[in-house]
Amino acid sequence: MKPITILEMITPQEQRFGGRYIDLTVIDDAEIKSGGGWLQLVVEDDDGDVGRLFVVTFEQIKTSIEGKLGFGSRIRVLDPIFMSFTSEQLSGIRVFEPKCIAYLDGVENMCRFCGEENANECKCSKCGRKYCSEDCIELDQSKMMHDLICYAV
Ligand SMILES: [Zn+2]
Ligand SMILES: [Zn+2]
């Protein structure tokens, strides 16, 4: 199998990239999309490009992903499928079958802002999310609108 990147996958039509794989780091908390049925994640590939990943949450796959997909998780998606919609919010990589996800070693205590590993030094005083430094807390609040997700997880 050959690797592929998010940028290489972006196509105007739905496309399945057979024989390819993409390694992704989850950089967002898992969220069930309104209407249900899909788990929506923001992911980053090894080039640092960011995209969306949608995983079907039907019962069959639910038990296999529970607790494994969240901030800092690393996964390999096999034979990835890219789907494009007029609404960019819905465009992204889609996973329909549990066997298309392999779980890699996650990033331990990933800093919410810079992605650094082993961020045990600092926590947001309100929600408890972890950071490597006070600077990263401040930058997350001023540049990344941390307030929008500042609630207990
Ligand atoms: Zn940091
Ligand atoms: Zn917070």
What's the topology here?
Blueprint (H helix, E strand, L loop, with lengths): L1 E2 L2 H4 L5 E2 L3 E7 L4 E2 L5 E8 L4 E7 L2 H7 L8 E5 L2 E3 L8 E4 L5 E4 L17 E2 L6 E2 L2 H10 L10
Parallel strand pairs: 1-3, 6-9
Antiparallel strand pairs: 2-8, 3-5, 3-7, 4-5, 5-6, 7-10, 8-9, 11-12
The site of one zinc ion (ZN) has 9 residues, from loops.
Describe this structure in words.
The mean pLDDT is 89. The longest helix has 10 residues, at 134-143. This protein has two domains: 2-104, OB fold (Dihydrolipoamide Acetyltransferase, E2P); 109-153, no CATH class. Helix content is 14%, strand content 31%. Strand 8 (81-83) and strand 9 form a beta hairpin. It has three helices and twelve strands, in the order βαβββββαββββββα. Strands 1, 2, 3, 4, 5, 6, 7, 8, 9 and 10 form a ten-stranded mixed sheet that branches. It is an alpha+beta fold. Bound molecules: zinc ion (2 copies). One zinc ion (ZN) binds at residues 111, 113-114, 116, 119, 131-133, 136.
SSE-based structural type: alpha+beta
Bound chemical compounds: zinc ion
The CATH topology of the largest domain, please?
Answer: OB fold (Dihydrolipoamide Acetyltransferase, E2P)
> Shape, please?
globular
* Number of beta-strand segments: 12
Secondary structure tally, helices: 3
Q: CATH class of the largest domain, anyone?
A: Mainly Beta
Number of domains: 2
Q: Uncertain runs with pLDDT below 50, 5 residues or more? A: none
The CATH homologous superfamily of the largest domain is termed Nucleic acid-binding proteins
The share of residues in helices is 10-25%
**Overall CATH architecture of the largest domain:** Beta Barrel
Q: Helix-strand pattern, N to C? A: EHEEEEEHEEEEEEH
What is the subunit arrangement here? single chain
Q: Provide the β-strand percentage band.
A: 25-35%
Overall pLDDT, averaged? 89
What is the CA-atom radius of gyration, in angstroms? 16 Å
The description of the largest β-sheet is: 10 strands, mixed
